[in-house]
Amino acid sequence: MAGLAEIRSRAAIVRRPVAAALCADAHTATFYYRKLASVCFDCAPVKYFALLCVFVLPPLLQGCYTPLVEGAQQGYDAARRDPLHAEAVTGDPVAEYKLGNTYCCHGGGPMDNLTVYDNPKATYWYCKSARQDYGPAQLRLAQLYSGHPIHGLHIALRASALVDTVQTDLGIALMWATLAATQGDEDATELRDQITAQATARDRAKAATLVKNWRAAPCRWTDVFPSVANANKQ
Predict the structure, then answer these.
(1) What residue spans define the domains of the chain?
(2) Where are the alpha helices (DSSP H) in the chain?
(3) Which among 8, 10, 226, 231 could disulfide-bond with 39, CB atoms 3.0 to 4.6 Å apart, if both were Cys?
(4) DSSP per residue over 31-91, as a string?
(5) Which letter does DSSP use for residue 184 in this model?
(6) Among candidates 17, 10, 217, which has minimal Cα distance to 123?
């Protein structure tokens, strides 16, 4: 069996073409996912990522469906930013939320560096909206911080996320879900209950403390995950 250093070396060789292939051609990507699985099949996230692409995606992605749809969606989101920005800077919570949506979100893996999405920018606008008590923005933050950063179809981004660990803060997620649920949103209520069941006693206590002064609570990506922000600067 190959040692850890050798596995990393082999995986590094195919990691870049995996990312590029995913954006260019579904059939070529499948070849590289098989190759990646062969060099690190004992690594559970990589294994499931490979299995997904080998056995599930090819039948769905005939004719390069993924690059076409993914590229079209990302292009659409990027094109919406300028007109939404003009409205968002006036302090309109709906425009702030919609602008945040155009930046949201990636969930890890090789696709992170190949998308138009940006979690810090997304949460910058979500937080402005959520602090004006706009329920959809509060719900989106709860989803993001409870480990569900990707919304919409985005098959490529979801597959990419399987090879990485999603950042979570259940205390902050629970706080935002609780606030959104008080506005009668059924999805927020369901998410609040799910997070409560998963959270530790410390997470629940953190949420209960933060909700008392929720407009001053940590909200932006770089505030919630400062270690990730510092690592990206290096």
Answers:
(1) 4-63, 92-152+165-233
(2) 4-24, 26-39, 44-51, 57-60, 65-79, 81-88, 93-103, 119-130, 135-145, 155-161, 170-181, 186-198, 201-210, 221-224, 226-233
(3) 10
(4) HHHHHHHHHSTTSHHHHHHHHIIIIIHHHH-TTTHHHHHHHHHHHHHHHTHHHHHHHHTTT
(5) T
(6) 217
Q: Tell me the longest C-alpha to C-alpha distance in the chain.
A: 60
Specify the CATH number of the domain 92-152+165-233.
Answer: 1.25.40.10
Map residue 162 onto helix, strand or coil.
coil
Using the 8-state DSSP alphabet, how is residue 216 labeled? G
Is residue 142 classed as helix, strand or coil in its secondary structure? Answer: helix
163-181 confidence digits (pLDDT tens): 556 789 999 999 999 999 9
pLDDT for 46-80, tens place per residue? Answer: 444 444 444 444 444 444 445 545 556 666 778 88
